[in-house]
Design brief:
By secondary structure, the protein is mostly helical. It has one domain. The protein has 21 helices and four strands. The strands form two sheets. The chain has a two-stranded antiparallel sheet with strand order 1-2. The chain has a two-stranded antiparallel ribbon with strand order 3-4. A hairpin with a 2-residue loop joins strand 3 and strand 4. It is globular and about 60 Å long.
């Protein structure tokens, strides 16, 4: 079977599996499942702008990055505000996005392991079928889009290092800007992207591409930062909530996450009917029962105090409170950081959805396979994967130091899948063909024709 047919098979499989999950699990019928993204989307359609009720006050917000709420608003515009129809449209769109994720994984694999198609095929299979990447399509959350953009930005970073072309550098910067406007924490992958470019061009040859990447990145995020300045009267780099998130992860009542550990969650986890939909319903019920840390840690007086100041100042107040709490318990911060690292690498025990055996088995399998893949990979491929390792390490470090959640792990899972696939490089046949010579995939007149396409952009 040709590379093209295998690639299309993986793409179609990814879309169909996610589409099936959407219809089987029926998450689009779960009430109160859109959280802040849905509220902002509703306000956008109502003419109230990018706004939300946050910490005691309604108004223009930077509590969320802009890209995903606008996508939710698009679904609402078609199917109605928070209706099952609009959420079904959104989730089916995310199922299609699963196909693009596979495209990005295949492109990244071709860049790091040219001439070793089995690496790409195995990595693409993991991206297509890994349970959490499939399940993410059934949620109103940014994780699947973020995973796709992380992978695509790294793939294009490697490509820029290989070609040195200005247009590739500009596309890389544009992808990083879009990623930052989707989830600014994930812009940490810029370090991996930079290394990939230097790896391909050398320090001197990388100066111009890196400059163009930075220019495109800055140009992409600048309008939103300027908007934030007008709204808040001060510099806010995409989101205003670092202090708030740090408080959630480190205040006296925190377990290192934003979730609350309640005994009642165990009762909610008992399925009330059989089948996968029944299990999914019980996971959602437990998630709603657990609630957020804010529900137990903030009083009415707290909300009144916070609501009286600007949104960035609310976050700073909570950040200072968290620092006071940590100073009163020396050693607790270190303990929380280690706990968060454990939650990130293994699973977050405060999140009801991690109680699923499917989740735990698949998550631990991917983690172990990724570690073994790096260990067993050929030395040259292990070195080539270095930029992805840096990206994953920085994201893991940030969440270990601040706050962790299951959804924060999803964007790195395609990279872990690539590491796992790297194991076959030691035994698979190697081809002297360079990535520039690999057959390009394209569609012309309704059939595969070999013109430059998503897997192998024109050089």
């Amino acid at each position: 079977m040709s590379d093209r047919r295998i690639a299309w098979g993986l793409i179609i499989t990814a879309v169909l599996v996610r589409g099936a999950a959407v219809f089987v699990l029926q998450s689009h019928r779960v009430p109160h499942s859109t959280y802040e993204h849905g509220e902002i989307a509703e306000n956008l359609l109502a003419g109230r702008g990018f706004s939300v009720r946050f910490l005691g006050s309604d108004g223009p917000t930077s509590q969320q990055a802009p890209v995903y709420p606008w996508i939710v608003a698009g679904a609402y515009a078609i199917g109605g505000v928070e209706t099952p129809r609009s959420l079904l449209i959104l989730e089916l769109g995310q199922a299609a996005l699963g196909g693009l994720l596979v495209v990005a994984v295949l492109a990244l694999a071709r860049e790091v392991a040219p001439g070793r198609p089995w690496v790409g095929w195995l990595a693409g299979s993991i991206a297509a079928l890994h349970p959490t990447l499939v399940y993410a399509a059934t949620h109103v959350q940014v994780a699947l889009l973020a995973a796709t953009l992380v992978t695509a930005a790294l793939a294009w970073g490697y490509r820029t290092g290989r070609t040195g072309r200005d247009r590739d550098a500009l596309v890389t910067g544009g992808l990083l800007a879009l990623l930052g406007l989707t989830d600014p924490i994930l812009a940490l992958v810029v370090a991996g992207v930079g290394w990939a470019i230097v790896m391909g061009r050398g320090m001197r040859g990388a100066v111009r591409p890196l400059g163009l990447v930075g220019l495109a990145l800055a140009a992409g995020v600048a309008p939103w930062i300027l908007r934030n300045g007008q709204v808040h009267g001060e510099l806010v780099l995409i989101k205003s909530t670092f202090g708030y998130a740090f408080w959630q992860g480190n205040c006296t009542l925190s377990e290192g996450t934003d979730k609350v550990v309640r005994a009642s969650v165990e009762r909610a986890l008992r399925p009330k009917r059989g089948g996968l939909q029944g299990v999914n319903d019980s996971l959602w019920a437990a998630r709603h029962e657990a609630g957020y840390l804010d529900d137990v840690a903030l009083t009415t007086a707290d909300y009144q105090e916070l609501g009286a100041v600007s949104e960035p100042e609310r976050s700073r107040i909570l950040f200072r409170r968290a620092l006071v709490d940590l100073k009163e318990a020396p050693g607790r911060y270190t303990s929380l950081c280690l706990r968060r690292l454990r939650y990130f690498v293994f699973f977050d025990e405060t999140n009801p959805k991690t109680r699923s055996l499917i989740y735990r088995a698949s998550h631990l399998t991917l983690t172990l396979a990724a570690a073994l893949g790096l260990l067993l990979a050929r030395a040259d491929l292990r070195w080539k994967l270095g930029p992805t390792v840096v990206a994953v390490a920085l994201i893991a470090l940030f969440h270990s130091l601040t706050i962790v959640s299951v959804r924060f792990h999803i964007p790195i899972e395609p990279l872990l899948g690539l590491w796992a696939a790297a194991a076959v490089s030691r035994w698979g046949a190697n081809s002297p063909t360079t990535v520039d010579q690999i057959e390009r995939l394209g569609v012309e007149r309704g059939r595969l024709a070999g013109r430059p396409g998503l897997f192998h952009p024109a050089t």
